[in-house]
Amino acid sequence: MERVALFPxxxxxxxxxxxxxxEQGLRIFDRIVIGVGANLEKGGLLMPENRMRLIRDIFQGExxxxxxxYEGLTGDYCRRIGVRFMLRGMRNTxxxxxxxxxxxxxxxxxxxxxxxxxxxxxxYVAVSSSVIRELTAFGGDSRxxxxxxxxxxxxx
Length: 156
Ligand code: ADP
Description:
This protein is of the alpha/beta class. It has helices at residues 16-28, 48-58, 74-81, 93-109, 129-137, and strands spanning 4-9, 31-37, 65-70, 85-90, 114-119. Strand 1, helix 1 and strand 2 (31-37) form a beta-alpha-beta unit. It binds adenosine-5'-diphosphate. Adenosine-5'-diphosphate (ADP) binds next to helix 1 and strand 4.
């Protein structure tokens, strides 16, 4: 049976760190669905459709990666699309504590879904969507933090 994981997140925007998690995930899973969670968004940088366009541009030609968006609870979305693995990334102990908390709740509510937490490669530990949002707000150049040196201005 095909092994498919959902990689859920805000991805506002998708960064080199996220890309590293997808690339490692592709060694474990046959396919990865990147799910842009579009709810509870106040004052994001990119519109959900532009977040998706950016991610699709990064993975164009990679048939094992699909990009979608969803509203509501991530576990419910997994059930709706029949996915039994949730992929997440972890940079540090703060991420670890947060991800563990979410995982424990999901384990209770969706016992058939397994969370797979992968470590961020060291060179991307300091990369975050919030740093890119801040750089963008103050006119900085974030291209070196983005996959393929993407210029975020093309997605604003
Ligand atoms: P969320 O709002 O759901 O946390 P994010 O887009 O911020 O969404 O993150 C999605 C996933 O990617 C989370 O598991 C997060 O820990 C992970 N992540 C964020 N930044 C990085 C990074 N630099 N390297 C690896 N994983 C990361």
